[in-house]
Amino acid sequence: MTHGHAHGVGTTDPVIVLNGVHVALSDARISVLDRGFLFGDAVFEVLRVYGRAPFALDEHLARLGRSLEGFRIEPSFPMAELRREVHEAIQLLAHDDAYVRVMVSRGEGALHLDPRRARGPTTRVVIAAPLLALPADLYDGVSIATVRAERSTDHTRAAGAKTAAYVANLLALQVAQERGAYEAAFTASDGSISEGHSSNLFVVRGGEVLTPPLSSGILGGITRALVIEAARDEGVTLRERLLFVSDFERADEAFLTSSLREVVPITAIDGVRIGDGQPGPVTRRLHARYAQRVRAR
Predict the structure, then answer these.
(1) pLDDT score, position 2
(2) 6 falls in which pLDDT band (50, 70, 90)?
(3) Burial tier of 113 (Cβ tally within 10 Å: 0-12, 13-18, 19+)
(4) Considering Cα of 162, then 166, then 172, then 173, what sign does the dihedral take?
């Protein structure tokens, strides 16, 4: 990696590695003709850092590769280089617990939607930053609100890709917040609930865990996959099938998963209490097992 003008080791500012060059935040610049800026023609990953170690980095980079493939973006760098840049950014940050955002766009091009007009190398950015403070009462349970919405990649070959075009997610979150909820739950025309605006969703009923299948077009969450493994470890029955509002309303428990927040209990949907309105025992067990996996790695 080449170093530009940058902060010293152990900075508390976000660490930026732009196209392999470590630059100060004030010097980090991308062209206005970059297709990620112009069209959202970019993909990204966000991963959690524990004790300066990136958690599930292999899985995140593999998913980034699948997202690039879905967008037909040919990276102009080897993935091994991106891996090194993630590690270096983490080491330069003065925080043991942090998060990393990796973004790759198709690069610069003519002012035209046609992806064939992209010229030159892809653009890649690695940002390592201190972990944002999570709400103190987050693990006491949150409410979700159903929002009728479709993501930009739904029903395309890039379905399930983690795309920078996050407008649908942003608008859904705004609607949920206006209704006093913490997270938006995407609801399709058939009434099925696919995922949260930035999470995967699960319900627990009669000791059995249910979650929507990947075939429904949801993002294949890294934490989701590890929680499914945790359920197997705990001897908890887990099935993948479409979920509806009634599944949440009749559930004993519900929870959401994401890389930064891990496992968060859901205690209400659209103002209706789930179970007894408290985090449930299966949710607690699965979160504890997930935490064990983090420590083991």
Answers:
(1) 47
(2) very low
(3) exposed
(4) positive
pLDDT digits (tens, 9 = 90+) for 30-88: 999 999 999 999 999 999 999 999 999 999 999 999 999 999 999 999 999 999 999 99
Cα 106 to Cα 164, 182, 233: the distances in Å are 11, 33, 40
Nearest Cα residue to 141 out of 293, 256, 15: 256
Strands 142-148 and 183-187: parallel
Q: How far is it, in rounded angstroms, from Cα 23 to Cα 5?
A: 6
- Alpha-helical (H) ranges within the chain are 35-39, 57-71, 79-92, 167-178, 222-233, 245-249, 281-296
Type of residue at 159: A
Which amino acid is located at 134 in the chain?
Answer: L
Q: How far apart are CA 275 and CA 268, in angstroms?
A: 9
**Residue pLDDT, tens place only, 113-157:** 999 999 889 999 999 999 988 998 999 999 999 999 876 666 677
CB 94 within 8 A of CB 11: yes
- Would you state the structure tokens that stand for residue 88, as one six-digit string? 């270096």
SS3 232: helix
Instruction: Give me the domains of the chain, ranges plus CATH numbers.
Output: 2-130 (3.30.470.10), 138-296 (3.20.10.10)
CA dist., res. 168 & res. 40, Å (int): 12
Predicted TM-score of the model (pTM): 0.92
